[in-house]
Specification:
Structural class: alpha/beta
Largest sheet: 5 strands, parallel
Shape: globular
CATH architecture: 3-Layer(aba) Sandwich
Distance between the termini: 12 Å
Low-confidence stretches: none
Number of domains: 1
Order of helices and strands: EHEHHEHEHHEH
Number of helices: 7
CATH class: Alpha Beta
CATH topology: Rossmann fold
Helix content: 40-55%
Number of strands: 5
CATH superfamily: P-loop containing nucleotide triphosphate hydrolases
Radius of gyration: 15 Å
Length: 164
């Protein structure tokens, strides 16, 4: 099984991904590590990524997913996965890939971004991510609210996974 914690910047993908991996006793990989230096530079300067910027990044994450699957490993990844077409690339028809959508209000996301330090993402890009976001339906993802504590969120994800 491969889980992908998804959502806009500030939703808590890394924290939730780490906690899920810890609870599942599996590997965790932050999708941001696969961004090219050019992508990181663009985002640092408040320039939204285009689909053309994202395609190679998404394909690289998919290759990492395939490595884990081929090794028979459970793993947790993070990736914003804002559009269904992006999720289709990451999923590639694979029924063992499950998205976990971290859903939150603009106000909570803005608050988190303004207090975050040491990240390349320029908080001014939040609006472009919200504009790009195609929220997944129940057929595509487990949805949890970021209004809860990280531990409550992980408990909810695992509960919904068990119900599937």
């Amino acid at each position: 099984m491969i889980l992908i914690a998804m959502g806009v910047s500030g939703a808590g993908k890394t924290r939730i991904g780490e906690l899920l991996a810890e609870r599942l006793k599996c590997a965790f990989t932050d999708g941001d590590t696969f961004h090219s230096a050019a992508n990181k530079e663009k985002m640092h300067h408040g320039i939204p990524l285009t689909d053309e910027d994202r395609w190679p990044w998404l394909k690289t994450i998919r290759a990492a997913i395939e490595e884990k699957k081929n090794a028979g490993e459970t793993a947790v990844f993070t990736c914003s996965s804002l559009k269904r077409s992006y999720r289709d690339i990451l999923r590639d028809g694979d029924k063992d890939v499950c998205f976990v959508y971290l859903k939150g209000s603009r106000e909570v996301l803005e608050e988190r971004l303004t207090t975050r330090t040491g990240h390349f993402f320029d908080p001014s890009l939040l609006q472009s991510q919200l504009d790009t976001l195609e929220e997944p339906g129940a057929d595509e993802a487990i949805t949890v609210s970021i209004e809860h504590t990280p531990e409550q969120m992980v408990d909810e994800v695992l509960k919904q996974l068990d119900a599937r």
